[in-house]
Design brief:
The structure is a homodimer. By secondary structure, chain A is of the alpha/beta class. Chain A folds into two domains: 3-370, Alkaline Phosphatase, subunit A, CATH 3.40.720; 379-452, 2-Layer Sandwich (Arylsulfatase, C-terminal domain), CATH 3.30.1120. Chain A is 25% helix and 18% strand. Chain A has ten helices and 15 strands. The first copy, chain A, has helices spanning 3-20, 54-62, 76-85, 119-125, 204-218, 251-272, 312-315, 341-348, 365-370, 436-452; strands spanning 29-35, 64-70, 129-134, 153-156, 188-190, 193-196, 224-229, 279-285, 316-322, 330-332, 336-337, 379-383, 386-392, 395-401, 411-420. In chain A, the strands form two sheets. In chain A, strands 1, 2, 3, 4, 5, 6, 7, 8, 9, 10 and 11 form an eleven-stranded mixed β-sheet that branches. Chain A has a four-stranded antiparallel β-sheet with strand order 12-13-14-15, with helices on one face. In chain A, a hairpin with a 2-residue loop joins strand 13 and strand 14 (395-401). In chain A, helix 5 (204-218) packs parallel to helix 6 (251-272). The longest helix of chain A has 22 residues, at 251-272. Chain A is globular. At the A-B interface, loops of A face loops of B.
Chain lengths: 461, 461
Amino acid sequence: MTLNAIKRLSLAMLGLSLAGLAGAATPPNVIIIFADDLGYGDLACYGHPSIRTPHLDRMAAEGLRFTDFYAAAALCTPSRAALLTGRHAIRSGMTHRPGTRAVLFPDSPGGLPPSEITLAEALKMAGYATALIGKWHLGIHEGSRPRDQGFDHNFGLPYSNDMDRREDVPGEARFRPDPPADGWNVPLLRNEEVIERPADQTTLTKRYTEEAVRFITANRTKPFFLYLAHNMPHTPVFASEAFRGKSPRGAYGDAVEELDWSTGEVLAALRREGLAERTLVIFTSDNGPWLTEREQGGSAGLLRDGKGSTWEGGMRVPGLAWMPGRIAPGVTSEAAGTLDLFPTALALAGQPSPAGVTLDGTDLSPLLFAGRAPPERPFFYYRGSDIYAVRLGPWKAHFFTQGGFGDPARKAHAPPQLFHLARDPSEQFNVAADHPDVLARLRTAVAAHQAAVVPGEPQLQ
Amino acid sequence: MTLNAIKRLSLAMLGLSLAGLAGAATPPNVIIIFADDLGYGDLACYGHPSIRTPHLDRMAAEGLRFTDFYAAAALCTPSRAALLTGRHAIRSGMTHRPGTRAVLFPDSPGGLPPSEITLAEALKMAGYATALIGKWHLGIHEGSRPRDQGFDHNFGLPYSNDMDRREDVPGEARFRPDPPADGWNVPLLRNEEVIERPADQTTLTKRYTEEAVRFITANRTKPFFLYLAHNMPHTPVFASEAFRGKSPRGAYGDAVEELDWSTGEVLAALRREGLAERTLVIFTSDNGPWLTEREQGGSAGLLRDGKGSTWEGGMRVPGLAWMPGRIAPGVTSEAAGTLDLFPTALALAGQPSPAGVTLDGTDLSPLLFAGRAPPERPFFYYRGSDIYAVRLGPWKAHFFTQGGFGDPARKAHAPPQLFHLARDPSEQFNVAADHPDVLARLRTAVAAHQAAVVPGEPQLQ
């Protein structure tokens, strides 16, 4: 059976399952708010001293705040592929290999394969209205575009906001909030149509928010899945007039504070429409902060390194889950991540996982709704197509280490470096020599995963 | 007029002022809870992922959380001298100079001079019951002891819990919670009497807490000042049986989580006695985390360096202010610190500042009770007797930099290194070249301070 045949069969089975639920109560909505390059330390509720995030702090206080929530990769494209498929990006071929670029670029031929079942496709088959508002970055060619991958509708940029750089705009002038004279020529799309080029980046967050609120309001009577994937605070950071120049943290803070406002607007719309208690809202980020971007990059707080790296700062990100009346307020240190959102959303929708598809995450419903910890399971820190590190319980072993950007070579470690993440969250003290038994368990977990994983056809060149 | 004569006159005037208030309502109580070597990043409400501090988080949510709160020095002895006198430690001679030790040791001849007016003395003259429960570290000789400096009563260790080290107990065994066989021979005092030696450090926090609750209960009908100066989480970290081995963060986390419990007990006692709305409670730390102590040391979060250093991590610490009904819940990024506690407490007590005494802080009452920012004022980062750095508004200039410990030499900077602490809280990007005007203002502030400051007779040898 080809992959596409498996996909057709899986979706058909989801459809049958839905038919069996006919007449049942409307299943809950799902909203995933995905920030771009927001670091672990960049919200006030994660300890930032000069970025003000009262709406996200309130969301955290009313919901569940994760201390150990992981993006599935340390870079945009593989992280987004993994979130939407519920699978490590290597399975869809959305990871780099030696000699290829690390993410999709405007001239890349590849994209998320049509054979992959996205969360949007699975929920659409279950009767959900689906929308991508914001950044895609999973391919611009037929078969890989948002509407080819289960979204009824999309509005946003096809890739990162620092692509299509205008070489005619010099240096710092690129960052000036003077559209259309800023330094990037990225297109703004509605579905497949370019409606603005260059996109006015200063109003992106504002327009994404308005679009999100319209989508929520329009779908108040049916289940919906909203994937609100902001372009901010990825460099170049921009904010609308109401936020520009306002944050003590500078331009980066302006962008994050506008995201905070945006999240407040989304939650307010849910409350206003009476949907708060039947909408799961997740807020997280695609990877850690871009540390080489100076003040345009964020902070990983006490975590080591940032975007691009498999040190904690590259992949551990803010993670908030909100559903008043269903999720009890609190803080959890259970390890979880974006790979878990696919099975969690399907469980919430009352749907089985797609048949014949290997998922890498776990349904978090017992944790979210009943405070029951998920079973211990390994988490694999991929950098491109290689596993650089693995976590099991509090233990993390690094087989390779490498800085996020500007660190050209990886260091191999034999034996691996071993850190206890709860006792040593900043990964300072290698205790491999004291715990050969732990290393053996971690090695076994990696071997079992690698023996079973089937890499997808490479999409990055 | 000698210093002692000034002190006598000042105290007499405080007494007259009190007489004038006869019949007025009971002034509010003041409690300062002072952790030892607790880092900026070590509480959940400041972003720590694996130390659980629900009571302090609740105190923060009910009160005012400071993002920019400073200890007055990066080491125990000068920090404590400054807090209790409201004056930079150089004024009382409690700072090191080249060739001297950095803090008081058990064999040190010096101590806080009798001529200094402590907050305990000032409040005692205003009719307050006063107690030190916990660590002193301002001298063990007559004239410098707690009861010589205004405390009616004291219970605790005379100095740090890692002093009086037992050389007969080898290496790691020193840290085992097996009293009296652990590795330190520190005495526990009640007033001037040694009541236990070595002190059982595992139950110190517990016993300090019980003593604090007894003091509160016993003084429910009169104003009181409680200085609850914990010995934890200064290495060697110990916790009582209920906390030992419980924190995911290990032994350090056990100690901090017991401090969290302790703070919860104090606030509960205030509520129980009906005193919550007329007691100002401050929670803070004497300096940043001791980074060279590996897992026995804490975390400065996103701040640079730690204890001993004038980078932010050495002196910026958690700061919480709580007084339900008087202090509105919130977060402030106004710069403030332990130097402000003396004038704030006196204002709360309705007392003028002692005549003829130069104070270095500002009354925070307008900020605490009305949300009004204090006037912009410089903050001086002393290392020993030298000013290494200065802050004014968001700007910080470093004239010298040096790591906390194990960094033998200071580096002089001409021009000074300049950082914008709100935009760059981790002090990564020196922007001195772009802001000569700011540097000039900062230099002027230092020059004005140095022209006026009168160093006290040196106490450290």
